[in-house]
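**Archive record**
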Amino acid sequence: MSRYFDAHNHLQDERLDTIRGIAIGECLRIGVERCVVNGTSPKDWARVRKLAESYSFVLPAYGVHPWYVEGLPPTWLEELTSLLCGGGCVVGEIGIDHWKDGIDRNLQEEVFLKQLSVACERNLPVTIHGLKAWDRLLQLLKAHGVPRAGFLLHSYSGPSSLVDLFIDLGAYFSCAPSFLTPGREKKIEIFRDLPLDRILAETDSPDQRPPRELDHYADATLNHPGNIKLVYDGLAKLRQISVSEMGQHLDDNFLRLFRQKGG
């Protein structure tokens, strides 16, 4: 492989502060062409923007993650809209989460739908989190609409029975390094039968680290964005095609969804 595309990570995350320089250097070394760096709340949007201004391979995404919907400043939506008006952006990471306890689900949906509306108005691709809430997410997307540009269901671990219904709405599905861990075969199995033109690769770094025996980086507690290579390799093995062929599909899909010009 001569280049890689990471459809979802959090390179701005403070946990990466001590190794961010190393991580960026490794991305450049292995040929990461583009990576979508997802904000999670107004507190980290400036960090995302700074990375995008500093490194041409960073595609910025701004959004409020469902874990952080409580206590938002009154002007959060106006601030988000202003950031997105600059162009060259993605809406994300947004969504709903029924796995983590103690977060008002009604508020999650309210914040999610406001952001989805902005994405639809501007026809921006959107990255969506739906942990343990895939059925409800499908209901909301069908009822409220999605951007014509399409949307990514990041780290998809939902049932196979919903795949075609999401595809009918314009969905893409991304695979994370943690799916390669023994005991999590059901998560990656979904990607065996997905249409090849709907699959993307992500790291979700610093979370969702790969199996320890595959992780080549020093800090074993954190996922490194350089691990995107492992996802390309794992998907190629799963689909029983060459890494080069799998990589071409992943590259084309990324460029199509995120409206990037091919290199």
About this structure: The domain at 4-257 is CATH 3.20.20.140 (TIM Barrel). The mean pLDDT is 95. The two ends are 14 Å apart (CA to CA).
